[in-house]
Amino acid sequence: MGTQQDQARLTEMFRNNLELCEVGPGETVAVLSEGDQLGSYRQASLAAARDLGADVADVHLPSNGAEDPAVRIANIGQNALSKHPEAMQTCKDADMVVDHMLLLFSHEQIAMQEAGSRILLIVEPVEILERLFPTAEMRTRVEAGERRLKAAQQLRFTNDAGTDVTYTLGDKFILTEYGFTTEPGRWDHWPGGFLATLAAERGVNGRVVMEADDIVFPLREFTGERIAFDISDGMVTEISGGARADHLRGFIEGYNDPRAYAVSHIGWGLNHHCIWRPDLPGIGMDGRAHYGNVLFSLGPDTEFGGENDTPCHLDLPMQGCSLWLDDELIVEDGAVVPEDMRAPTH
Length: 346
Ligand code: FE2
Prior knowledge:
Mean pLDDT: 94
Shape: globular
Number of helices: 9
Strand content: 25-35%
Structural class: alpha+beta
Largest sheet: 8 strands, antiparallel
Order of helices and strands: HEHEHHEHEHHEEEEEEEEEEHEHEEEEE
Low-confidence stretches: none
Number of domains: 2
Bound molecules: fe (ii) ion
């Protein structure tokens, strides 16, 4: 993003998204940014919201040093807003916050949502924002999944490598991501295209075996070989396999926090424009939202109303799985089954 032309194109793309978010006159939009990070996004959001007739607040905080979103997502839960109560208040008072800071999983983000601000996270590279631009059609399919997930008592998924794990679903918060947001207090992330939830307390039991071509975030690499996770009462009790399993265990141990072994969210991807590669720039939405994946995760659950705010956050997208909600087959060997969740070309 260097030229004026690029900036104008960026503003237009952001305006198209903010239109999906129903931003307009009478609304206040706070654009949250930090240091030199994503300066062109900050300008595009401000211009786009202004174009749509909203009142705009430019909430810009000094840099805290971590500019790369990939570094930040590996160390989430801490951010500069805790030191800037006036900036925090502006965000809480706004109808909508455009987040270019990456508040994901922070207490500050949750406080804004509780105050009624809807939030859209935009930190991905332009190429990814463009290729995975959200649509109303995607929202419809994600919400079809949400309705089923809400009604279900149990989620089970398997794969050919030996996965067979069951999540007992209690009173759960369901996270949907379709890339824009219209409802007060609702968070979303552009690009999106998946949904997820948490099991009830101690409600996960079984075994997950990742295949060699499954993905490990935030390490941004393929598994490389099979890695098995034994799970009892919601906690991983053993990680086994070869050198790559040792490597992953070492990564987790580096946080020195037993809560890193808690099983976190579970869900599946519905974005048919995603590419199965762990090394694309950005924070890895291609893997996380990939059509027909199952996204298995360890670590924090604050985004789902839980108490675990461990900074060790592993998102582990898996291909070729089968997933059931109660007796209904939702994903079969990596293919989405229900008609109202299937992408137009699948
Ligand atoms: Fe996660």
